[in-house]
Amino acid sequence: MTWLDDIRWDRDGLVPAIAQERGSGDVLMLAWMNREALARTAELGQAVYWSRSRRRLWHKGEESGHFQQVHAIRLDCDNDAVLLEVTQLGHEPGIACHTGRHSCFFQRHENGAWSTVEPVLKQPDSIYG
25-79, pLDDT tens digit by residue? Predict the structure, then answer.
């Protein structure tokens, strides 16, 4: 039995993973991890996720250069969600979202609609070409 066995994986063998910026506490993104992704993250010290759309491991930053250095891995009280304490690398300020924004949580509910509340720091076509 290993530390990975303590996690309550869903029926697809996944666990949600929240990336939170060290220092600011900003929630940058939510992604998914399988056992291999979490083990690789712990081994490398950089975030590796499971891409549900691509059906493969995804080393955050492999295409964009916006890697996530992992300082701590935490498990919630129900053992069914992971929190990564990260430093977002590759652009200053850090870009975690494929839309070129600091955080994937850039929309806020206001007056019955969603409002964009964070600017694009770098155009996605210049990141992904």
Answer: 999 999 999 999 999 999 999 999 999 999 999 999 999 999 999 999 999 999 9
Q: Of all residues in the chain, what percent carry a pLDDT higher than 90?
A: 90
Per-residue HEC secondary structure of the chain comes to: CCHHHHCCCCCCCCEEEEEEECCCCCEEEEEEECHHHHHHHHHHCECEEEECCCCEEEECCCCCCCCEEEEEEEECCCCCCEEEEEEECCCCCCCCCCCCCCCCCCEEEECCEEEECCCCCCCHHHHHC
Is the Cβ–Cβ distance between 60 and 66 less than 8 Å?
A: yes
Domains of the chain in start order, with CATH, are: 3-123 (3.10.20.810)
3-class state of residue 128 by DSSP = helix
